[in-house]
Design a protein that fits this description.
Elements: H1 6-15, H2 22-30, H3 41-50, H4 63-86, H5 90-108, H6 127-140, H7 149-160, H8 184-193, H9 196-213, H10 220-225, H11 232-235, H12 248-260, H13 264-295, H14 298-314, E1 321-322, E2 325-326, H15 327-334, H16 339-346, H17 378-389, H18 417-420, H19 431-438, H20 445-462, H21 483-500, H22 508-517, H23 519-522, H24 535-538, H25 544-553, H26 563-573, H27 584-587, H28 598-606, H29 614-626, H30 632-642, H31 648-656, H32 663-676, H33 685-699, H34 707-722
Antiparallel strand pairs: 1-2
Helix pairs in contact: 1-13, 2-8, 4-9, 4-13, 5-7, 5-13, 6-12, 9-12, 9-13, 12-13, 14-15, 14-17, 19-28, 20-28, 20-34, 29-32, 29-33, 30-31
Length: 723
C-alpha cells in the first residue's frame, strides 16, 4: 500500500490545523459575554476585512436578488456533496459525516449569535433594533433553556460523538480536527457583533446571506446519511421556529430592507456585509468540499492522523527501528510529510494490508499488555482500521487538490489584551455623562473601568451594615427555595396597599415630578439584564428566564408593547417630553435632577458584567421585579387615574411581574436554580458567601443612604478605579 499522494498532502498542508491562530483567538474572545473591544485599530481591521471582495462587489444588485443567488448556490452545492455520498462506502460515509459536522461546527453552533448586542439601552425604542431582537429571540428559542439553534447543533455533535470541545462554545477553538478556515466567517461576525454601532449594517447583511443559504451545504451529507441525528428545522437558519410565525429569512429580509431604507450609507453597508459573507462562505465551502472529497481515500485521514500525533510520539520511539532508521526519525519527517512513513508502515510487520483484524498494530500493540495501550482514541483506531482495510492505491491515483490558495486570515491581532489596554481614553466627567456613554454596548477603556468601579462602589454601599434585619431576603437561602418567601412578600405588599388606601393621594404636580424623575431609570427598563442577551447565558438554565424578562421589557419586538415607549406616552400626557434617550440633550434636560441618574448608572454598569456579578444581578432582578407587585403599582394606578393619566404602564407591570407565572416568579426560580447548583458542604462556606452576594444585589435596588454607607461607596469606587 502506498502512502499519501502529493495532492492529498497539499490539502492537509493548506487546510490543516494551526493551533493558536488569530482566528481561533478571535473566536474565543468574541464568545465571552463580557467581551470588551474598544474602537481604533480593530475597527480599521474589520473595515478592511469587509472590503476584501470589493473588486467583485456589484452595488447595484437588489437585496432580493442577492438572496435568490445565495439560495440557488446553496442548492447546487448540496448536490455536489450528495455526489460524494454516492461515491462513498459505509466507512467513507462515516468519515464524511464526521468531517462535515466538525467543519460546519464553528458557524453552526453560534448561528445568529452576532445579533446578541444589536439591542442596547440606548436603542430600546428603535423599531429596527426591536425587529432584530425578535429574530434573535427566535433563534434562541426564547422562554426555554437549551432551545437555541446553536444548542441544536451541539445536540447533533453529541449524538454523533464529536462534542469533546463543543461546550462552552469558546472551547471549540481548541478542537484540532477543525481547520482554521472554519473559524473565519464566525470569528469576524462575532467580533463585529461586539462593535454593533460601527457595523450594524454589515452584520445585518451577513446575517441575511446566511438565512438565504439556509442549511449549510456540507450538512446535506449528514442529513442524507444520519437523518435522525439532528433537528434539521433548527439547523436551517432560514426557517421559522414556531407555529404561525414568520420565517427567519423573512424576518432578516424585513430588517435589512428597513435598515437600508434609512440612508444610502446603511444600504451600502447591508450590501457589503451580504457580499462579504457570501464570498467567504464560497471559499470556505470549496475548501471543505475538497477536504471531504480527499477523505474518500483512506490514506488521507491516515496521513492527517500521523501529522497530528507525530510530535508527541517521537520521544517514545528512538529504539524502534524501521529499515535504516528509528521510528522517531520517521515520525519527525511525518510532521510535515507523512507519505514516507505510511509507505514504510504498509510494508512493515506491523501491518497486514487489507486485514486490520490481524495487524499487530491493532491487536497486540494496543492490547492492555501492549506498549501502546490506550494511546489511540476510538476515532484514531477507526482511521487506522479503515486505512489498513482499504484497497491499495497506485502512485498514479490522485485526490482533489484545494481550489487555489486559501484566504489569508484577517488581522484581528488587536483583540490581544495588551493592545486593548494601550489607550484608555477619557472617562465620564459626571453622572449625566456616564449615563449617556453607558447607553451603548461599547466605549473607551476608561468608560469600561468606570462602570466596573461604579458597580463595586454601589455594592459596597448596598452591603454596608447588612444583617438579617436590613435585607428582606432570608439570612440563609432556604433549601426548599424562595416560593414561600415570595408569597409572604406579596402578602406584605398587599397589606401595605390596604393601609395606604386611606391616605391622601399625591398632588398632580408631585405625581408629574416623580414620573419625570423616574424617566432616566424607566426608559432603560431591563438594562440590568442586558448582559443576558449573550447566547450562552440566554439559553442556560439560570439565564434563560432573565433573557425572557429583558425580552418582555422591550415589548417582545413589538413597539406597542415596548415599556420605554409606553412610558413616553405617559410623559407626553403630562406635557413632559424629554429628548431621545440616547441623545446628549436627554442627560442635560433641565427638568432632571442629578440624583435621578445615580441608580440608572448602576443598572447600566452592572448590566455589562453578567458573569462577574451574576449573584448580585440575580438579587437585583428579584428586587426589581417584586418591587411594585401587589402594592405600589396598585397605588400608582389609583393616583394616575385620579389625575386623568393613562395607567397602562403600571397595569402591564402589575400583571407580567406577578409571583405565580410572571417575572417575580422567574426571578426567584433563577436564584433557586443557581443556588441549588452550589456545593452544600458541612461549613457551607461557598453557598453562604454567594448567598450574601445575592442579598447585597437585592439590597442594591434601594441601598442605605447614610453617611457611612456613602463613604463606603466612595472608598470602593476609588479603590477599583485605581485597579
Amino acid at each position: 500500500m502506498t502512502g499519501h499522494t502529493a495532492a492529498e498532502s497539499q490539502v492537509v498542508s493548506d487546510y490543516g490545523v494551526r493551533p493558536g491562530s488569530t482566528l481561533r483567538a478571535a473566536y474565543q474572545r468574541a464568545c465571552d459575554p463580557e467581551c470588551f473591544l474598544p474602537d481604533g485599530q480593530l475597527t480599521d481591521a474589520l473595515n478592511v476585512e469587509f472590503d476584501r471582495f470589493r473588486e467583485t462587489f456589484d452595488q447595484s444588485m437588489r437585496i432580493d436578488g442577492r438572496c435568490r443567488r445565495a439560495a440557488s448556490w446553496s442548492l447546487q452545492q448540496a448536490e455536489r456533496y450528495l455526489a460524494l455520498v454516492d461515491a462513498a462506502d459505509a466507512e467513507a460515509g462515516s468519515a464524511l459525516v464526521r468531517r462535515s459536522t466538525l467543519a460546519c461546527a464553528p458557524l453552526g453552533i453560534v448561528q445568529g449569535n452576532w445579533l446578541q448586542w444589536l439591542s442596547s439601552p440606548g436603542g430600546a425604542e428603535d423599531p429596527i433594533r426591536l425587529r432584530l431582537l425578535a429574530l434573535y429571540a427566535s433563534d434562541l428559542g426564547v422562554g426555554r433553556p437549551r432551545a437555541s439553534r446553536g444548542t441544536a447543533y451541539l445536540s447533533m455533535l453529541r449524538t454523533l460523538g464529536h462534542a469533546e470541545h463543543a461546550a462552552p462554545v469558546a472551547a471549540l477553538a481548541l478542537d484540532e480536527r477543525i481547520a482554521d478556515t472554519g473559524f473565519h466567517l464566525p470569528a469576524v461576525l462575532l467580533t463585529a457583533g461586539r462593535r454593533p454601532d460601527d457595523f450594524v449594517a454589515e452584520i445585518v447583511g451577513a446575517d441575511l446571506c446566511l438565512r438565504a443559504v439556509g442549511l449549510l451545504p456540507a450538512l446535506s451529507v449528514v442529513q442524507k446519511l444520519v437523518t435522525q441525528a439532528a433537528d434539521w428545522n433548527s439547523l436551517n437558519a432560514s426557517t421559522a421556529r414556531g407555529q404561525d410565525t414568520p420565517t427567519a429569512l423573512n424576518q432578516s429580509l424585513a430588517a435589512a430592507e428597513a435598515l437600508a431604507a434609512d440612508g444610502p450609507e446603511l444600504a451600502l453597508g447591508v450590501a457589503r456585509g451580504f457580499h462579504w459573507a457570501f464570498e467567504v462562505l464560497r471559499v470556505w465551502n470549496e475548501a471543505t468540499h475538497a477536504e471531504l472529497a480527499a477523505a474518500l481515500n483512506p490514506a488521507f485521514e491516515m496521513a492527517e492522523l500521523l501529522r497530528f500525533r507525530a510530535r508527541e510520539a517521537m520521544i517514545y520511539h528512538h529504539d524502534f527501528r524501521m529499515g535504516d532508521r528509528s521510528l522517531a526519525h520517521w515520525l519527525a519527517e511525518a510532521r510535515t510529510n507523512p507519505a514516507p512513513l505510511m509507505a514504510k508502515l504498509a510494508t512493515s510487520r506491523l501491518i497486514r494490508p487489507g486485514d486490520s483484524a490481524h495487524s499487530p498494530l491493532l491487536t497486540s500493540l494496543i492490547s492492555e499488555r501492549g506498549p501502546m495501550f490506550r494511546i489511540f482514541s476510538p476515532g484514531d483506531l477507526a482511521v487506522i482500521r479503515r486505512w489498513i482495510d482499504g484497497t491499495p492505491i497506485s502512485s498514479s491515483d490522485t485526490a482533489p487538490a484545494p481550489p487555489g490558495e486559501p484566504l489569508a486570515p484577517p488581522d484581528l491581532s488587536t483583540l490581544d489584551a495588551g493592545a486593548i489596554g494601550a489607550t484608555a481614553g477619557t472617562g465620564p466627567a459626571d453622572l449625566r455623562e456616564a449615563y449617556h456613554l453607558l447607553l451603548r454596548r461599547t466605549g473607551t477603556v476608561a468608560v469600561h473601568r468606570y462602570a466596573h468601579a461604579y458597580v463595586h462602589g454601589w455594592l459596597a454601599r448596598a452591603g454596608h451594615d447588612m444583617d438579617a434585619n436590613t435585607c428582606p431576603l432570608p439570612d440563609r437561602w432556604p433549601a426548599s427555595g424562595l416560593h414561600e418567601w415570595l408569597i409572604d412578600q406579596h402578602d406584605r405588599h398587599a397589606a401595605g396597599f390596604d393601609e395606604s388606601e386611606a391616605g391622601p393621594l399625591p398632588s398632580r404636580d408631585a405625581l408629574v415630578d416623580s414620573t419625570v424623575q423616574l424617566a432616566p431609570l424607566t426608559l432603560i427598563d431591563g438594562s440590568w439584564l442586558q448582559g443576558f442577551t449573550d447566547a450562552e447565558l440566554a439559553t442556560s438554565e439560570v439565564g434563560f428566564s432573565l433573557f425572557d424578562t429583558y425580552w418582555d421589557e422591550l415589548g417582545n419586538g413589538e413597539p406597542r408593547l415596548n415599556h420605554p415607549l409606553i412610558y413616553r406616552q405617559v410623559l407626553a400626557e403630562m406635557a413632559a417630553e424629554p429628548p431621545p434617550t440616547d441623545s446628549v440633550e436627554f442627560t442635560r434636560w433641565p427638568r432632571f435632577r442629578d440624583a435621578s441618574f445615580e441608580l440608572p448608572v448602576y443598572w447600566l454598569s452592572i448590566g455589562r458584567f453578567p458573569r462577574t456579578f451574576l449573584p448580585e444581578v440575580l438579587g437585583l432582578n428579584l428586587a426589581m421585579e417584586l418591587s411594585g407587585v401587589g402594592g405600589s403599582y396598585r397605588r400608582a394606578r389609583i393616583a394616575l387615574k385620579a389625575h386623568g393619566f393613562d395607567t397602562r404602564f403600571v397595569d402591564i407591570h402589575n400583571t407580567i411581574d406577578n409571583i405565580a407565572t410572571g417575572h417575580s416568579a422567574w426571578a426567584a426560580r433563577a436564584i433557586d436554580t443557581f443556588m441549588s447548583a452550589l456545593p452544600d458542604t458541612t461549613d457551607a462556606g461557598l453557598r453562604r458567601a454567594t448567598w450574601d452576594r445575592v442579598r447585597a444585589g437585592y439590597r442594591s435596588l434601594d441601598p442605605p443612604d447614610s453617611r457611612a454607607a456613602r463613604r463606603a461607596q466612595r472608598r470602593a469606587m476609588r479603590r477599583f478605579s485605581r485597579d
